[in-house]
Design a protein that fits this description.
3 domains; alpha/beta; GMP Synthetase, Chain A, domain 3; 560 residues; five-stranded antiparallel β-sheet; Rossmann fold; 26 strands
Amino acid sequence: MEVNRINSLVELYFKKFEKIDKKKPFLKWLKPDKQTYNWEDVTQRIYKLTAKIKSIIKQGDRCLILSENRPYWLMTDIAIMNAGGISVPIFTTYSANDYEYILNDCKPSLIFVSNQDQFNKIKKFINNDVKKIISFEKIDSQSLLIEEILDEAINEKIVNKDLKRNMPACIIYTSGTSGNPKGVILSHGGILSNCEGAVELLEVLTKKKDPVFLTWLPLSHSYEHTVQFIQILIGAKVFYAESLEKLISNMVDAKPTIMTAVPRFYQNLFTKININFDKQTGFKKKIIGKTIFLGKKILYKEKLNFIEKIQNFFCQNLVRKKIQKQFGGNLQAFVSGGGPLDQKVGEFLNSIGLPTLQGYGLTETSPVVSCNLPDLVKVDTVGPPFKTHQIKIAPDGEILVRGENVMLGYWNQKKATDEVLKNGWLHTGDIGQIDQNGFLKITDRKKDIIVNLGGDNISPSKIENILCLDEKIKQSFVYGDKKNYLVAIIVSEKENNKEEIKKILENLNKNLNMVEKIKKFILISEEFTINNGMLTPTLKLKRKEIIKNYKQQLENLYLK
């Protein structure tokens, strides 16, 4: 399919439907007793939902989706666009203030909500702009139950042919690391250009096995929202995970070939696997060490001698295949996005038989800018840019992006739009460089950089990633803007005392330059979480909130 000739995401879906086996399994929620939907099932439901939505909204109306991942999510998203609406997916983990702000900001005409728990989060913020509420499960409000809509005998095959690539497809609200979330307007063409750019990556990954995805990252996130259209493009079978807690067991059930996730998932995976490795003794410990050693050599395209080739054969069969089996046995690649993946984590996962491709993007770029390729992984980079757009490095090191994938703007925020969109170039706020092979390397966040009293620019995220590689440190936060030295908040297990953490920091400091060393720290046991407002829904640190909550304790470290 020539994606560059497709006018809309709706057209993409129906063109794929024309060509694919209608009875081929398509969507499956891994909760017990949930049905599998084939392409015919999904399409008939999209037709019926489209007809109902068209009877409620007018062209360009915003339609909110508040739901965990499930098959109805995709059906609803496409039906909204097909009916001429603009899809507005929102996180199930937002704060009450965020929900109030978003509903007042985008003024939806129609709200889709999954169940009573989700409805309770927004019901007091629903105003007269909302014409109707459609629920996936029964709720205690005057709403339309989606099953009742789908039971209606409507056979009208509605396909919206008036949609164009430059028209808004959705408004994705940023996760809000600071202040209120911004509504990023993404076009049909922006997401389609991302799909087109992903084809090169996917061609390699889908040659050996039919594509199967396990989805757990919220579909309200721009990364996973675009991935669902990539899934449509390649005719993938899609499984929706039950929960983060059951993700590994869900992988065994789904046997995915491709899975997308954020760096925190891979960081936790790295820690858990290493804890298990450390428990091994004797021959097992030796062959694990050899597997990692040889895996890194292969990763960096170093030649193996005859003995090493024999050793690698045994490592492959005795270690890597066993690890792969624990993740379903069919995994062609993990794809990491949404934040920087520590180089050590990327090296480790690739070396033990879990191919991990780091990419880069942001909501404002629909979202992918670049990604490593399966046959050419450079773990210290985020890969080459997609061929569908351009990137360049500004004189101050900031990464600039231009192309159809760039957002149309921020909803109701012209000033904020003008601040980042200049002469067609999106100013990402990220600092980076392009190597001689055209691979992009992210070095920092422009706005997160700490400038000490000596005028040194310091990357807090770099140091935080290094700290969290130690299994005794669960989370860390580095502080020190306009200060003589850096301090940190360390989240650790309760049983680990301050003296232990102090020794760990002393050893870690040896590998940091003078201005990066952590001089003092606060030890806490309460984790930074989404629920306590310290993490975004994509597990990034909300730096301003953390400083707000621990300001006095951090400042006290400079008085001692």
